[in-house]
């Protein structure tokens, strides 16, 4: 068994697609109409057949409440690995991404947290 898709609640699918593809450089794999919303998944350009990130609309009240509560508590919704966190931090800052935590070393990892503009805090990590 392996993880093939993981979901991330977003408050606006179009805005999320733009942020995750243009700013974070993920590659759109699927964009399929599903009634009022779409099945939008992205993958890492380094692993096009790897785990897909689903940009899931937060329209269900429980999803919206969950997303808002973890955001307000400063809890990242997910974590992405990066090879050079300092370079990625600098690149994203230059693009206007707002960080709530600058790169910080904790044990064998260095972590940073930013706002994805779609209702989530995202953690990046370098091992």
TrEMBL record:
Matching Pfam families: Glyoxalase
VOC domain residues: 1-127
Species the sequence originates in: Sporosarcina soli
InterPro entries: Glyas_Bleomycin-R_OHBP_Dase (IPR029068), Glyas_Fos-R_dOase_dom (IPR004360), VOC_core (IPR037523)
CDD domains named in the record: VOC_like
Source domain of life: Bacteria
SUPFAM superfamilies: Glyoxalase/Bleomycin resistance protein/Dihydroxybiphenyl dioxygenase
Protein name in the entry: VOC family protein
């Amino acid at each position: 068994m392996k993880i093939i898709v993981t979901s991330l609640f977003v408050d606006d699918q179009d805005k999320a697609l733009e942020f995750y593809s243009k700013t974070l450089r993920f590659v759109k794999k699927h964009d399929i109409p599903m009634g009022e919303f779409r099945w939008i998944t992205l993958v890492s350009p380094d692993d096009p057949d790897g785990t897909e990130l689903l940009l899931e609309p937060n329209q269900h009240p429980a999803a919206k409440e969950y997303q808002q509560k973890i955001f307000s508590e400063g809890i990242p919704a997910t974590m992405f690995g990066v090879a050079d966190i300092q370079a990625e931090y600098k690149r994203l800052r230059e693009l206007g991404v707002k960080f709530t935590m600058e790169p910080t070393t904790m044990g064998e990892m260095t972590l940073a947290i930013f706002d994805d503009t779609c209702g989530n805090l995202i953690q990046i990590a370098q091992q």
